[in-house]
Amino acid sequence: MPDSPLLTVLSTALLAGETSVEAIVVRLRLTLDGRWRWLRSLAQRYVAAFDGQTRPRRRDVVEFLLRDRGFARARSRYFGELRAKRWLTESQQMQPVAAAAGWDVPAIESAGDLADWLGLYPGELQWFADLKGLGYKQNRPRLRHYRYRVLSKGYGNIRLIEAPKPRLKELQRQILARILEKIPPHPAVQGFLKGRSIKTFIAPHVGQHVVLRMDLRDFFPSISGARVQTFFRTVGYPESVADVLGGICTNTAPRDVFKAAGFDIDPARLRDARTLYARPHLPQGAPTSPALANLCAYRMDCRLVGLARSAGARYTRYADDLAFSGSEAFERSVERFSTHAAAISHEEGFAVNHRKTRIMRQGVRQHLAGLVANQKPNVMRTDFDRLKATLTNCVRHGPESQNRDGHAAFRAHLEGRVGFVESINPAKGKRLRDTFERIRWQ
After folding, report:
1. 13: number of CA atoms within 13 Å, CB side?
2. 246 to 58, 157, 233, 240, 442: CA distances (angstroms)
3. Residues paired with residue 325 on neighbouring β-strands, in sequence order
4. One-letter-per-residue 3-state SS of the chain
């Protein structure tokens, strides 16, 4: 295209700073040689097209220019006279959406600023972000940023644990502490947040007439790298910064990692898993993934809260577990309600695992995330009895006889399980604690 430099300089001017019409007109006049009267109407149409939305990518702005009839007429009429007077060389400014304007996040306006903020050289920054997917294409495990472990889930499904190596994990922790934790999550979210827990997840549903439990399939890998980059642009970061932040927080898993599964995998399930994990996604194992998953699911949570209120129900979410509850009125419509909730989840990019959907009325055990919610929060009897038997056998036969899974810190493992029961049911927890204290540790 003969005037592609013109499109480049105009899109740079449109994206550079403040999004008011006056500011855009000033930038456009600084970049073009001449005071063209049609620039104001172009700026007005640009603001109308993108106002209140996520910060657009450069290709979206170029597409807007190519489709704009007023700009097409100006190019046709003044083609030989439209010349760039100067190129804007300053960094793009932060442009958060209205809801993000008050978030206390650091202003990072170029890839160079991001490298300095993370304490990296520019080349190192690009290597960790790996936007070209070199770690996926090359069969060189030592150069990869993640270690992989394949787990077998129920119904023949596969889960891939992607643990970042120490240097990348350090970068992700900085992004988590200084950016992601500064952004308020939805009030319905109860997982992976300070002050919220599995107890706060089930508390609104205790003693309710009916409880609906739903599960999202492949929660972390279903959140794509493009979606994460869009989120960072929503926060206000320029495209170059948002893309690199998204690259650091997402991963593309090499196909060969499934060869060392250690168990038989159904060929169809293996193909599905390879396809799912072969695109950039949130890795289960990265410290940034839980917070990003919660934030990327914000709109779904808003819609599900609205749906629940319209049906007289309550809603909470703990990672991929969705819980709804209500009175007799909600019970009468709960089957139809679950269909609407699944549709909303699908529209927001998440798939419901219908095999795990449960409608639990008062006459049966109402359980959420491994806890009973009928009258008060309580641990499931089978889990309590199993832990009690393990502790008793540790007293009688020694703890080594019960460490069948080979836990390196078996004492800490058992104490953590006892502490969890104490946090849910202090009376039952005390009985387990008394037994635990009688174990003789070498």
Report:
1. 27
2. 17, 27, 10, 10, 47
3. 211, 314
4. CCCHHHHHHHHHHHHCCCCCHHHHHHHHHHHECCCCCHHHHHHHHHHHHHCCCCCCCHHHHHHHHHHCHHHHHHHHHHCCCCCECCCCCCCCCCCCCHHHCCCCCCCCCCHHHHHHHHCCCHHHHHHHHCCCCHHHHCCCHHHCCEEEEEEECHHHCEEEEEEECHHHHHHHHHHHHHCHHHCCCCCCECCCCCCCCHHHHHHHHCCCCEEEEEEEECCCCCCEHHHHHHHHHHHCCCHHHHHHHHHHHCECCCHHHHHHCCCCCCHHHHHHHHHHHCCCECCECECCHHHHHHHHCHHHHHHHHHHHHHCCEEEEEECCEEEEEECHHHHHCHHHHHHHHHHHHHHCCCEECHHHCEEEECCCCCEECCEECCCCCEECHHHHHHHHHHHHHHHHHCHHHHCCCCCCCHHHHHHHHHHHHHHHCHHHHHHHHHHHHCCCCC
pLDDT tens digits along 85-100: 666 666 688 989 888 9
* 226-260 pLDDT, tens digit each: 999 999 999 999 999 999 999 999 999 998 888 76
Q: What pLDDT shows up at residue 80?
A: 65
Nearest to 23 by CA among 88, 100, 77: 88
pLDDT in tens, 178-211: 999 999 999 999 999 998 999 999 999 999 999 9
- Among 73-77, 344-348, 362-366, the least confident range: 73-77
For the CA atoms of 384, 386, 387, 392, what is the dihedral angle to 10 degrees?
120
Q: What pLDDT is attached to residue 86?
A: 65
- 363 exposure class (CB count in 10 Å sphere: 0-12, 13-18, 19+): exposed
Q: Does 17 have pLDDT greater than 50? A: yes
